[in-house]
Amino acid sequence: MTNHLVSRFRVKKLSPKQRLPIYKASQLPDLVDEAIKLNRSVPVIETGVEKEEEEEHDLQAAINAAHAAVTTGAKMNSYIPTPDASHTIDMAEYHQMYTTHFDPPQRLIRFNMTDNDLFKSNYVMDEYDMAFLSQLESPVPEDELELVMDHMEHLVNTQMPHLDLDPSQIPTCPELIKMLPESFPTDHPVLESIILHWRERRIQRSGRPIIPQLRYEESTRKGDNDPYVCFRRRDTRSTRKTRRTDQQASERLRKLRREMEKARNLCGMVLRREKLRKEGFIQEHAVFVKRCELREYQASLGIKEEDIFIPAYKKKRHKRESHTSGSTTIKIPLSRLRDDDPSHGKSLLQLAIEKDLARKREEDIGFEDITACPYQPFPLDLPCCFFNSFSPKDDHAPQFRKRIGRGGRIFIDRTRFKIPTSIEPRYRFDPDIDPTKEDVVFEENEDGDCLEYLWNSWQQPGKKVDEEKKQDQKIRPLRIRLLSPKPSASSSTTVQHTNNSVP
């Protein structure tokens, strides 16, 4: 049991909320001997100084010498220097400082003021001030010198606290005299000399106070092991992380690394793609420039055939693998294959026309274009050709109609525009117009100029504008090719369609 207790010994932080067990001396073995046997380090007693300062050579030597002097009685070779308070002072001086007459207070506890509170100034003269007083022509008491020096120190430390950062900003003697309060006597004959002496002392101290002050730890200086710092804040130790939290943090870092590598690879691939695109654009531009130059040379030399310099694109045929190795293969002559190729033996102009025709076929899927159709409709029956109906013309038809609604309200309806019946046969094949309907009604927002143009075109369908004729002549070959049936490759005969109406 004892060995089990010793092996599990661990220095833990004491807490008032934690219950501590109590053991007798007979229940516990000698901890020092057991620690030596188990090669376990005995916990070091805290020295009360910083952890970084505990490892200093002088401090360790003094602690070891003091421990050896207590345990073995050896002489202390090294020690921590402290002021000696063993000597005594003169009794006359002691009685002058501390009176023997003491009257106990009747009520409450009373105390006297300290010696520092009794002094008028906090400045204390040194040997430099004594040498300065000896050089003055008119004698000045020491108390007055200390009072003036203390006023100057307090005034500058209050109004210019960061003077040590830039000593060149120390004010001059006239400026310092203006900074003194009004209650301070400025008519003293040696006041200016004392101020100049204080200014020289402050310059020698690089802007710092003449009397050294307690140095505190500054928040801006972290990790500064200055031995002259009196008070330092104790930083709380961070809680120890468990293995689970360490694994989670490392897993997050690995995941972040993988994501960053993927993003980097994607950026590299995008950059490579854009470079290839740029090279492709440059090559296409160079080809375009060369073709333009070729066109200019052809125009200047009078060359009309384009196939000599720009051969037609030939699509490569992929060879199909034969599934049966023992079957006989029939070879087709190469000339026959070239003749079957639709792009073989055609110029660029023919290929461009066929491409436009194919595009127009795709756009006109589901529609029937009869505006420029070369075919004539089937002839009507003979009775229908001579049938004609007569209807009385009402030139004085009313343009408005009056009706009465609910509550006695009066409504005026305007008669809509009617299209003449002579324009019906032109649109009889349109699926969205009913041929049995007598008239087609237009909306009220139709423009008058548009209706007039439609009326003129319907009354005189043979007249067209010269620009429309030119445009129609350009598109007419395409329309004829679109409406003509495509000849099959197997048929040896072709049907030629003629139209006398086509110019």
From TrEMBL:
It comes from the Eukaryota. Residues 461-503 are annotated as: Disordered. The keyword Nucleus applies. Residues 246-273 form a coiled coil. Its main location: nucleus. One of its GO terms (biological process) is regulation of transcription by RNA polymerase II. Residues 463-475 have a biased composition (Basic and acidic residues). Keywords: Coiled coil, Nucleus, Transcription, Transcription regulation. It is found in: Nucleus. Signal peptide: none annotated. Residues 487-503 have a biased composition (Polar residues). One of its GO terms (cellular component) is NuA4 histone acetyltransferase complex. Residues 10-153 form the Enhancer of polycomb-like N-terminal domain. Component of the NuA4 histone acetyltransferase complex which is involved in transcriptional activation of selected genes principally by acetylation of nucleosomal histone H4 and H2A. The NuA4 complex is also involved in DNA repair. Involved in gene silencing by neighboring heterochromatin, blockage of the silencing spreading along the chromosome, and required for cell cycle progression through G2/M. Belongs to the enhancer of polycomb family. This is Enhancer of polycomb-like protein. It comes from Lichtheimia ramosa.
